[in-house]
Design brief:
This protein is α/β, with parallel strands linked by helices. The protein contains eight helices and 33 strands. The strands form six sheets. Strands 1, 4, 5, 6, 8, 9, 10, 11 and 12 form a nine-stranded mixed beta sheet that branches. Strands 15-18-21-24-27-30-32 form a seven-stranded parallel beta sheet, with no helix packed on it. A seven-stranded parallel beta sheet has the order 16-19-22-25-28-31-33. A hairpin with a 3-residue loop joins strand 2 and strand 3. The longest helix has 11 residues. The relative contact order is 0.12.
């Protein structure tokens, strides 16, 4: 019989709607990050670096690219006969067919998978955060405190605490109370959405709350465990952790990678970040090419200038083009003489010649101002921008566009241009 000390359940089914058109064709954990990786690479790498060799990845929204990226887990050394990585989509049962309706409901629907591994502990992870954490140290803390549930928390400025689930603890780290996004927080210990459960505790609570609609860890499972008198502890984490759930935080986290001394270091030998790197040819910078404070992915060709930017694999920056303060994802082509400033350009985009992106004044986006802001121009996967167009700030463009789609050759600041087949206006 299989016996695993700790298995991980990685929640990777989220749509990531606050990333707008970046998640139009892919799940949020499959969005490219750092010129080489996808967001899910970080928790997967944490698992193998922490000695956790059994990971169930729960997928739902747009799973195709995520599934092909993970494959059988070879890049993370998770291709194993016993354990390894297993993709867990929602599936049809004899009496019903159910989508995952909440984080805990998704875990409950995979009870048989967990039971087959016979674990002592279950680690619950989210697939959409950028961080490095040794889960083995967190497990040691869990065992030392004879905890039933341990919640990873990090101190945040008290004025930001109302954005999070907040833990109130006694002097020994035991959680006495918690509040979900409180208006007046009583603590600055924010939950990171990372939990270790003793298997018996998790199993009992999931079964007890199986009829709960949209069953969620923060809203339902943790209160149930507390009310049952279970021992809940807060494990304090003080490293780098970033929720890249908005275009602003996503852009910021990428830009932090190119700081002279980056707060989040991708180059540490002892804690490598692994990925499925299918492009193996080297990057090329021509004689007239200029590269300054950038990450440049494999197979990219730079004939123009790139400053303070993160460039994915297989990108072409044509002669005379200038890219600044931007994220350009794999397979994209920037046409000759184009100027790009503070943009997020998704995979396989074609930017024509002499296009100017990120020009003019900042005005609120006319369509979804809460998503498309921060002075960014956001262009969705597979989009085409014709020659000589101008695109302003706080804009969104998605789809294959032609000159007729623009007003006098311009998508003004705050504008939205969504063609058929893209996210709908």
């Amino acid at each position: 019989m299989i016996k695993k000390e700790m298995i991980a359940m990685l929640l990777a089914g989220g749509q990531g709607s606050r990333l707008g058109v970046l998640t139009d064709k892919v799940a949020k954990p499959a969005v490219e990050f750092g010129g080489k990786y996808r967001i899910i690479d970080f928790p997967l790498s944490n698992c193998i670096n922490s000695g956790v060799d059994t990971v169930g990845v729960l997928t739902q929204y747009q799973p195709l690219r995520l599934n092909s990226h993970i494959g059988i887990g070879i890049p993370w050394d998770l291709d194993r006969n016993v354990g390894g990585v297993t993709i867990l989509p929602p599936y049809e049962k004899s009496d019903s067919s159910e989508w995952y309706t909440g984080t805990a409901n998704a875990i409950y629907q995979n009870m048989a998978y967990m039971e087959s591994m016979n674990p002592d502990y279950v680690l619950i992870l989210s697939g959409d955060h950028i961080y490095k954490m040794d889960y083995e140290v967190m497990l040691d803390f869990h065992r030392a405190n004879h905890a039933d549930v341990t919640i990873a928390c990090m101190p945040v400025p008290i004025e930001e605490a109302s954005r999070f689930g907040v833990m109130i603890t006694d002097g020994n780290g035991r959680i006495t109370d918690f509040e979900e996004k409180p208006e007046h927080p009583r603590s600055n210990l924010a939950s990171m959405g990372i939990y270790i459960f003793s298997w018996s505790t998790l199993k009992e609570s999931l079964i007890a709350l199986r009829e709960q609609k949209g069953c969620d860890f923060g809203k339902h499972i943790l209160p149930y465990c507390r009310d049952k008198g279970q021992r809940l502890f807060a494990y304090e984490f003080n490293g780098y952790w970033k929720d890249v759930g908005t275009l602003g935080s996503f852009w910021e986290a990428n830009m932090e990678l190119i700081d002279i001394i980056p707060e989040f270091n991708l180059y540490e030998e002892f804690w490598k970040i692994y990925t499925n790197g299918e492009i193996i040819r080297p990057q090329y910078v021509s004689g007239e090419g200029v590269v300054d404070r950038c990450i440049i992915g494999e197979g990219s060709e730079i004939y123009g200038e790139v400053h303070d930017s993160v460039i994915g694999a297989g990108v072409t920056v044509s002669r005379g083009a200038v890219v600044r303060n931007s994220i350009v994802m794999r397979g994209t082509v920037i046409g000759a003489g184009s100027q790009i400033d503070k943009a997020i350009i998704a995979e396989d985009v074609r930017i024509g010649d002499n296009v100017r992106i990120g020009v003019g004044e900042e005005v609120p986006n006319v369509w979804k101002p809460q998503i498309y802001g921060w002075g960014l121009a956001t262009i969705g996967e597979g989009s085409v921008v014709p020659d000589n167009m101008k695109i302003g700030k706080n804009t969104v463009l998605n789809g294959v566009t032609t000159a007729e789609d623009y007003t006098d050759g311009e998508l003004p600041g705050g504008g939205a241009l969504i063609k058929e087949g893209g996210e709908q206006l």
